Amino acid sequence: MDYFSLTIFSFTCILILQISQSSVASQSPLETYIVHVDMPANQILTESQDLETWYQSYLPTTLVNSNEESRMVYSYHNVFKGFAAKLTAEEVKDMEKMDGFLSATPQSVYQLHTTHSPSFLGLQKATGLWESSKYGEGIVVCVFDTGIKPDHPSFSDQGMSPPPATWKGECEFNSAACNNKLVGARSFSIGGGTPLDEDGHGTHTAGTAVGNFVSGASVYGLGKGVAAGIAPLAHLAVYKVCTFGCSESDILAGMDKAIDDGCNVLSMSLGAGPRPYYIDNIAIGAYKAMEKGIVVSCSAGNSGPYMATVANEAPWIMTVGASTIDRRFKAIVVLGNKVEFIGESVFQPGDINSSELSLVYPGRNTSISPFCSSSSLNGTDVRKKIVVCLVGGGVSRVGKGRAVKNAGGAAMIIVSSPSYANSTFAEAHVLPAAHVGYADGLKIINYIRSSSTPTASIMFNGTTIGDSRAPVMAAFSSRGPAPISPGLLKPDITAPGMNIVAAWPYSVENITNTKSTFNVLSGTSMSCPHISGVAALLKSVHPDWSPAAIKSAMMTTADVVNLGGNPIEDETFLPADIFATGAGHVNPSRANNPGLIYDLQPEDYIPFLCGLNYTEQQLTSIVQRKVDCSTSIIDTQLNYPSMSVILGSSQQTYTRKVTNVGEASSSYKVYIEQPVGVDVKVNPTTLNFSEGTKTLTYQVTFTRSKSNVKADFAQGSLKWISTKHSSTKHAPSPCNFLVIYTTCSYISIAQQTETGEVKSSLETYIVHVNKPVDQSFESNEESRILHAYRHAISGFAVKLTKEDVKEMEKKDGFISARQQNMYSLKTTHSPSFLGLNMNHGYWQDSNYGEGMIIGLLDTGITSGHPSFGDEDMPPPPSKWKGKCASGIACNNKLIGARNFVNKSEPPIDLYGHGTHTSSTAAGNFVRNANVFGQAKGIASGIAPRAHLAMYKVCLDLCAENVISYSIGGGSKPFSEDSLTIGAFRAAQKGIFVSCAAGNEGPYSSTLSNEAPWVLTVGASTIDRQLRATVVLGNRKEFEGQTAFQPNNFPRKRLPLVYPGAEDDEAVYCGCGSLNNTDVTGKIVVSYNAGNISRIEKGQTVKDAGGAAMILINVEDEGYTTMSDMHVIPASHVSFSAGQKIMAYLSSNSKPKATIKFKGTIVGVQNSPSITHFSSRGPNLASPGILKPDTVGPGLSILAAWPDLKNNTHTKSTFSMDTGTSMACPHLSGVAALLKRSHPDWSPAAIKSAIMTTADTLNRNGNQIMDERKKPANVFALGAGHVYPFSGNDPGLVYDIQPKDYIPYLCGLGYNDTQVRMIVQENVKCSTITSIPEAQLNYPSFSVKLHSGHKVYTRTVTNVGEANSTYGHVINNVPGVDIELSPTQLVFTKVNQKLTYQITFRRKSSTPAASSYVEGAIIWVSEHHGVRSPISVQLEHLK
């Protein structure tokens, strides 16, 4: 349907262009107008015919009844009421006087928006392979060619990350020329002294492979759209090895350097004819590159359509043929007899005279003139005529046009040669031209010969898309079979190589005021970089695939039919054989998931080379070492993704080994399309793969049939088919060849867890010490040291008595020793609620956090849970140095696990909390997750492709990107809080630390983890509820929640009882409290209080014989209700609902009720709201820092759980849990996504991005409410509710480097020792200019204001558009005047920093009483709003 729609759209564009260019001269020219009219008054027009008549009435009356061709172009019935017609300006003036006329405007001609070959290959922005591969990010493609034009916009590094750490290349331009896109540029001696491209070929091929997105690209206004390479965010390195040719020595020198530099893909659009591998220096260099894991892509050559002309045929090279795309730059030749022929040209002038001109063919007179050389037209009058020229004669096609133009010709028709048949080129000609096929050209010449006055015109139809014949093999594309190794089928594959728009070093249109210059070129030089780009995409997604695996994936998924569903054709429009197509036309999306691959390791080529009977010296020249040829194979036996067999009278059998890279458990059956005259058998006929069986071998036997076949070769196919994949092998054979070629086509139908007596007891102390200088220590005493710290602090944890500590205080270097604090725990719809959706938007853009490591400090982990499975997970990054304790099944998801409570035990989660928080942060995708059948769906963490490391109550650090700890111990000075100190050390290492705010709300100043270098996270609701509706005997209903929702709960009303009315001990349903109350068969009402868990209350009711429970909030809990996993039917209702239920109980002698269980409800409109338990500010440890920073989902969060007692038959166990402990890992996951997208951002920048883009409105568009359904203040809400999508593009960030905290800490009044304990370095506050805490460059403001005013500064860094201007909006703070200076921030480049001052002044009219007021400032640009919340404490005025 997409192709059909596109074709119709293109055809419409053609019509419009023809109409506008073939208009007839009049008083003023005819133009197509779009006319809007009003419906006629007092008439109802229901039929199309009625509308047509009405529209016709607007046309000039002389036209309606005349025989002149209708000028009505279209009649519109649905989009609006009106029509399109060809009119003069005078006719429009007359039409304006008619009743019902609304408007008439000349039509606009819209350009198609793409340079198209990526789109033709199925690569679309923000979807599919482009998205999953992040457009090739992190891959370095190295192009060997004529150099590069470095300042072309195709090589801009906008949106580019820095090159990978493995990159070691050099830039021989000046430092400004290279960037994060162009990461290397070298030139080699014979190739010239600078990498600058003086030819254009290298710039074009580089742009084709990895050019960045460039808007408005076109050539003479055609092909206009967004230009992009196949891997637009891959890095580029250029090796100039060609000028007027490509020296072998230069090529080898370049390849040698490229291997050292760290290239991932080599793209080489160069080559010579077939030659033995040992004297083919490209093959030799490519072999070494392949050994290093580098993919080498080479052009097949431009010597087609002749057989056995393929170049670069070594099996370790990807050999690429060329074909067309479905775009054409049409130039239509119209003969005097009205016969039309479609040709092509890029130069399509808008002012060409559309009238017919004399048509001349100089070849009628001489044998030289048909080719239109510079001197051949001297004897022919071509002035103001259209000249027909044949391709050939040693004159380029553009050169023929120059000759015609110089001789006075008006235009040119180029005719293809017989061998090139229907292959035509769109080129930047110097005069109006059309290149037509050979058959059409003969018809034109015959018309000339048969007419005394032949005439013609050329109509230019611009860019058209949707050619159903595409792809068609280009005539010039070199063909197989491979002369050097006939047992290998070459070329391997075909890709777009005809009329490709890409970067060019200068303007072919002679435009001097732009660097955005492009050109159209054709050749296998153009198809090769397409495959190089695809290889980069695949390498990005599958970094562990070998070059052979990547080649196999492309070959075995290639298309063998065109857009029309017919076999791919060659230049004659007949089905192309596989010596032209190879495996077929590349299909990048299918190559990303091939099912099976034919893999080869470097050592597998040795027997193949030995089988070629090369001498020891010849072999050594290829593999660069001595080779043992005791084992050899013939070329057909190589485990290649194709077969080429020379078959005589004897049958032949070959083996192939396939590796399963698809679903672990899968079965494939064979299907054979028999080649004519050959019987093909496969054994076995079924391949069964499992988790333990990833590779299988099969045999293929070829036997000549008894039928007499006269053909030189035959081709067929062999296909492995599973319910999820189809794996195809094609087969041809030339002369005495039989070629059997194997591909895997992918068909997905898949749908897609010490003891001793001492004076005082031993306690664990945290000891801080200065680092020793040039000292080492030894001791034979059994150590009482529990942990020695290298990163988090300078010090250790040790078991000591108080007396030991007294002695230790006397030692040099001692700073402090404190007893360790015991921190309390701050105990899947939430990704979707945060706007994170699979295969879309920011989740996809960030690659789901891939490559990030989240370290969690918690109760341990359940390693066998499917949330921690490593399906689709890459290995951890090379920087990872963590360990996995024995007894834990680590993998590519769970990459580290340690137990710091008891080192002799594995860090198994015996509580559940750590498993839950881990899966919330980074759990992998698990289908059918649910709790008691509720909230069913796909469970995942916020960063499902991030790696996890679990530290069971640990303070040490490894190499994480994000640390998440959902623990805390209330407010305390930073110098006495080991978690805060460890977090500072993490921040110094660039590690983001996310912490739970605490569960002591809704009371003020109850926060934990208040330091400015951690993200302090409060808890909010999501828009999902597990509804349980209480229905009273008076029919009134009250909504509540529970996860346990039985299907068999009786609908009839049961007796309702409140035990607390008779027994004070029974108010809270504590254990045994109902022994004196008859609750059998009744619904029991209990308050949610009394230090008894909600589930324990239900257990008490159940033990006493109760039928169900209604749990009522106390007043402070307001409307916060929870979906707990109760052991009894229950409903947790709000305080307001509870009061009404209690009133009903007290007013009714026989109260009754029931509970209706409504299941999972999604779309609660007042979400998010702040939970009652979420701890509140202001910040006691540092009142000048506004805390919490942000809020995230923390109520009734479904995530992994170690075990459910009644569900022991599965590891896929989940639970609901509630607390800021649940909110914290949500933000940890978001931080991982942001770190993945912006690896250079500091922890403070990531925090700023989260805070300044947070939401302050709920789903209804109203202010976020608290548990009372009143607007939440900044001490509950912080900056607002996290919104990951906006956080990815904040516009501006408030950045802080670790050293910036030192003046802040000194300003808090800490002494030198206390500051040194925190920052782990010697500090003298007397030598430092301290700052008030509100002066720290924080993304929020917390100000104490007495009388007068206070002034603070902030510095913002531009991480948005380079040229951007920000104005400001102030959300008024009651009683406070706020001024900003400057009032506007103007940026001219990315990462530019600007500073502003903000002044707070208390108004004279403000009441004298102490109070808190709040507001915000927002810096606003065209694309961004950067919001900073403000809290002002108005101090009491005496």
Automatic annotation (TrEMBL):
Keyword Transferase recorded: no
Protein family: Belongs to the peptidase S8 family.
UniProt-listed Pfam families: fn3_6, Inhibitor_I9, PA, Peptidase_S8
Domain Inhibitor I9, residue spans: 32-113, 777-825
Protein name: Serine protease
Localization per Swiss-Prot or TrEMBL: Secreted
This protein's UniProt keywords: Glycoprotein, Hydrolase, Protease, Secreted, Serine protease, Signal
Cross-referenced CDD domains: PA_subtilisin_like, Peptidases_S8_3
UniProt keyword Protein biosynthesis, yes or no: no
Active site, renumbered: 145 (charge relay system), 201 (charge relay system), 525 (charge relay system), 858 (charge relay system), 913 (charge relay system), 1221 (charge relay system)
Superkingdom of this protein's organism: Eukaryota
GO molecular function: serine-type endopeptidase activity
GO process annotations (BP): proteolysis
Domain annotation Subtilisin-like protease fibronectin type-III: ranges: 637-726, 1335-1432
Endpoints of the signal sequence: 1-25
Matches recorded under InterPro entries: PA_dom_sf, PA_domain, Peptidase_S8/S53_dom, Peptidase_S8/S53_dom_sf, Peptidase_S8_Asp-AS, Peptidase_S8_Ser-AS, Peptidase_S8_subtilisin-rel, Peptidases_S8_3
CC per GO annotation: extracellular region
Domain annotation Peptidase S8/S53: ranges: 136-561, 849-1261
UniProt source species: Lithospermum erythrorhizon (Purple gromwell)
Chief location: secreted
Stretches assigned to the PA domain: 358-444, 1054-1141
